[in-house]
Amino acid sequence: MLKVNVGGVLIGDGVPKIQNMCKVPITNPEFEKRLEKFAENGVDITREAVETEDDVDKLKKLRAKWKGKFPVPFVADIQANEKIAMMSLEVADKVRINPGNFSRRFLAEFAKEAARLGKPIRVGVNTGSLPAKYRGMPPELAMVKAAGEYWERIKDCADVSVVVSLKSSNLRVTVEANRIFRVNFPEIPLHVGVTEAGTVRQSLVNSSLGIGSLLAQGIGETIRVSIATADPLEEIVAGRYIVNAAYELSGKRVVFPKVIACPACSRANYNVERVAIAVEKMLLKYNQPVEVAVMGCFVNGLLEAKDADFGFSGGRGEIIVFQKGEVVERFPVADEIEEKVVEIAKEFITSYFSKNNVS
Predict the structure, then answer these.
(1) Which CATH code fits 258-355?
(2) pTM score, whole prediction
């Protein structure tokens, strides 16, 4: 597997890198705030459309402000503007283009300039911009043909790092296209995702099935969960959980933090939902594995979550704190007990990652 360095983040090193979109114009003051927020919350790579020279100028100023490096590696998303694509190579950590919207001549020039600057390219192929000669065949095969052709053109022109994506809003087409491409081009890193996946509920289902099934087959070096109606950080949370689920399904240990939380029936003697949400928020900035359990009662707590690194369980008038199935503390239920539980969780999480040399 070829490895691709995007602003210091390595794609293809065995752990899927999770991306999101900023979802705000680059010239909007909110863009700068979001990059800083992403950095504080463990985002691997972020991306946004670069449409104008004003966008490029803003990126230059921000990069200078941050001493030549964005808080989070930034990918410029270009659809059809040759001039902006070339300019973006100077300021972005990677540039995503859809070669179906560019001439063969430009693609060669672009590849050479990217190689000169040491910037990687993402070749983005989707069913909406396929070459005319491929449009009569099944869409998954057409995407594979087009992506393979674009990759070979680029590599014939320059020694440049390339990531490929093959996306459709159709789950079967997306999964099959990526599966077939991997068989034919096993060394090329793949960015996987379901494009136009929809609103929160629909996207979580579509992305879990589409991205998850590919990851379970070992396909996908970087992913993005596309959610039309959610904060960009929710794309990161969803992506982590999909990676963890796919890894568990294929018999591997999870690679991101995991919150184990029971359904919180009437046996729970504290507010499981409130604590679980608080714990999930605390874990967002960490990209290393840990399992924290938030269980409501003595029936499920210690037994079902005994393998968790750390956890809580309700008991008969008490809260039980445990690590790897061993009880380490008990305290009686009282008013506002959730505040105490959250504080203990915070202390454990901080200590755990400190011991593991994670800031």
Answers:
(1) 3.30.413.10
(2) 0.92
